[in-house]
Amino acid sequence: MFEPIDKISNLSKFKEDVFKGKIFVFKKSEITLNLVQEIKKNILIEYDGQLEKLHHLDNCEEISSTLVANLKKIPEFKKLFKIFLKEVNFFHEKSYWDQFRVRVAPAQNKFSYREASRISSHRDTWGTNIHQQINWWAPISSISETNTMIFYPDYFARAVKNSTSTWDLNTYLEHRKREDFSYPSAPQLLEELPSDANVQSVNIEPGEILCFSGCHLHSSSKEESDNTRFSYEIRTICQDDLDNRREAPNTDCDLQWQFPKIFRNIDDNSPLKLLAE
C-alpha cells in the first residue's frame, strides 16, 4: 500500500495517483534527515531525554504541551521542508501550505482533545472541505506498531457517518484562542468501524516522509504503547489542481463552507482564495 519513491518524475500523474488513494513514502535524503535533526535540536531546549520515553516523567503532559506550542513558531522547519519539496520535484509556483506542526502522541491513549494526544479516526478534508489537499507526515523518533498512524484503505471512497454537518472551523479556532479544548479539533466519526476492517499501519523511519490524500480515513493507533511518538505534519494545496478540478472524491463531507484561510502561499505568504469566495 505504501509505495517508496525518491523523486517525482511526472507531477500531474503523481497527484492523480494521490487523489485516487495511492500513498507514497519518500526515502531518506540529506535534507529530510537535516529537518529531523533541526526539530530534535529545538526539542532539546525543553527536554533532553530519550524522546520515546518521555511518558515516564511525572510532568510529561506539561512538557508535551509546551513543546507542541513552542515548535509551531520556528520558521526554519518550513524553510527546510520547502527545500525538500523542490528536491523531489513537487514544488512549483502558486503552492500553498498550512502550519508546520510537531505532534506528541502519548504512550497511553488518555486524551483525544489536547494538543499532545492521539487522534481519532477522521479525514483531514472533513476540516476544510477542500479535496485537492495533500498531507505530508513523518516520524521524528522511531515509531512502534502500538503508537503510529493507521489507515482504513477500504474507506477511501466509502462513506461513514460523521459530524461535518454541524462542525465549524471558525468556532473551533475561537475556542482554541481561549485555550478551551471542549470543542472538537475536527469533525468526529459517528459510527463504530467493523472489528475486522482492513487496517494498514505505518512503519517508516525518521527521515522518510509519508504523502497521501487528505481524503484517506486514518487515525492514531489505539493500543497503549511503550513509546511516546514524536512526528511532524503539514498539508499542501496547489493552485493548478484547483483550476483543473484535479481532486480526491468528496466521500462524505457535509461542511457548509470551504475553509481555505489556514493555507498560505509558500513564497509570499498570501492567503489561499477560492473562486467561490
Features of the shown structure:
about 280 residues; Jelly Rolls; 8-stranded mixed β-sheet; 3-stranded antiparallel β-sheet; 11 strands; globular
What does this structure look like?
The structure is a single chain. This protein has one domain (14-265): Jelly Rolls. Helices cover 24% and strands 17% of the residues. It is built from seven helices and eleven strands. The protein has helices at residues 11-19, 30-43, 60-71, 75-87, 125-128, 169-177, 239-243, and strands spanning 2-5, 23-26, 95-97, 101-105, 134-139, 149-151, 200-201, 209-213, 218-220, 229-238, 264-265. Strands 1, 2, 3, 4, 5, 8, 10 and 11 form an eight-stranded mixed sheet that branches. It has a three-stranded antiparallel sheet with strand order 7-6-9, with no helix packed on it. Strand 1, helix 1 (11-19) and strand 2 form a beta-alpha-beta unit. The radius of gyration is 18 Å and the shape is globular. The relative contact order is 0.23. The model has no long low-confidence stretch (mean pLDDT 92).
